[in-house]
Amino acid sequence: MEKTTGLKRSVGVTSGISLVVGTVIGSGIFFKQAQVIATAGGSTPALLAWIFGGLITLAAGLTISEIGARIPLTGGLYIYMEKIYGKVWGFLTGWAQTVLYAPAIVASLSAYFAILFNNFFGLSQQWQLLVAILTILFITGINLLDNRVPAAFAVITTSIKLLPIIAVIAYGLFFGKVDALNQSVATVTATPSGGFGMAVLATLFAYDGWATLTNMGGELKNPQKNLPRAIVIGILIVVVAYAGISYGMMRAMPANEIVRLGDNATFGVVTQAFGKLGGRLLTIIILISILGTINGKLMALPRMTFAMAEDGVLPKWLAKVNRFNEPIGSILFLTVTASLLQFTASADWLSNIAVFIIWIFYTATFVGLFILRHRDKQAAQVAEPLQELESIFSVPGYPWVPLIAILGALFVLISTLINDFGSSIIAIGLVFIGLPVYWYYSRKKGEAYD
Questions:
Q1: Where found (predicted)?
Q2: ∠ CA(222), CA(300), CA(290), 5° rounding?
Q3: Cis omega (within 30 of 0) on the bond before 385?
Q4: With 90 as the cut, is the pLDDT of residue 317 above it?
């Protein structure tokens, strides 16, 4: 039986695609080019790393799309994990995103925005904290209005952020004089993190955010069709954009020069193509791009917290909606926690921990598709069927596509554990701190633990 909420089904497929693209494409594509080339050891393996990372992400998106079509409810991974593995694991999924992933990712994005904003306007570092918090408050204000407003903001910012990507691709294709393929670099990353595999890992971090839309399953129009469409089309656009800008940059500038310029490589290509004014315009567009990404997070992630509060496993005030039927309690909770995190760890540490945690639950959810299909085979009828078989999206290439998603997820987790074991264990510990909270609310509701 589908849960009823105070949220409206008013988000269409175009807004859904914009949310996927806008949430994924932030600043990473503009700053990761040199890292991927240096880690991979040359231009051809770097380009392949972006493509491989995109294929893994597409496999993940297809897998989640079928699960989301079967369970078209507000709450995303929280609802999926609860339906597949039971209430304890559903709660821990939601808890991890509410208290760790969502605040950490919003805090890190706003910190990156503040750094770039201050550099552009020549402000001293002491303004960084204030700018970051004001950025969060600005996007919060947009998301407290009718959800058509942040949805429109997502469409606008996504359209704007694609402009420099298209420009770099076009410049590289039509005016670039460098052979983009078969270039080697003089200084390959000489650390345990070097190699093609770690280059793919770097791209997977840049692709993160594609599953954010699943949190809004209860607000999408016709979610059984539009959720898979939005996720798959959105990921395909991102893959083309990422591989395209990588190829375009390597056509415009030698790989060694890109590695030498590091984070400034994209600015170097744009300045080469369009002059100093072009470089400054790129900075403005990247700032808009990051705002769009923060908007996507603040638009979708509070829906999961809202769903948990509606279920009675978090304080009821988190399920409060305003006159626009927006989950004001959950949105403001994310606003406050993300703002407080500005006073703690660095943006890089926060973003790395956030991505590691979310991939733990991605992995379990991918495996869950096999469980759901097995249940369908075991019984023609169940007490509360998730969705009629003939009306749902099915993953093409099953079981190989979900297996690719699972292997990619395991690669992310194992690589992160090897490279940052201490932080990974801290993050896992913070997840399991949620168990006493779950026991408290289960006892309060008079339910048995499961």
A1: Membrane
A2: 125
A3: no
A4: yes
287 in Cβ contact with 209 (< 8 Å): no
Within 10 A of 186 (CB to CB), how many other CB atoms are there? 9
Q: What is the DSSP string of 8-22?
A: ---B-HHHHHHHHHH
Q: Are 23 and 296 in contact (CB under 8 A)?
A: yes
pLDDT at 188 over 80: no
Q: What angle do CA 66, 68, 72 make, to 5 degrees?
A: 130
Q: What is the DSSP string of 84-113?
A: HH-HHHHHHHHHHIIIIIHHHHHHHHHHHH
CB 308 within 8 A of CB 78: yes
Between 3 and 101, the higher pLDDT residue = 101
What b/e string do you get for 3-37 counting C-beta neighbours within 10 Å, with b at 16 or more? eebebbbebbbebbbbbbbbbbbbbbbbbbbbbbb
Cα–Cα distance for residue pair 186/437, rounded to 1 Å: 53
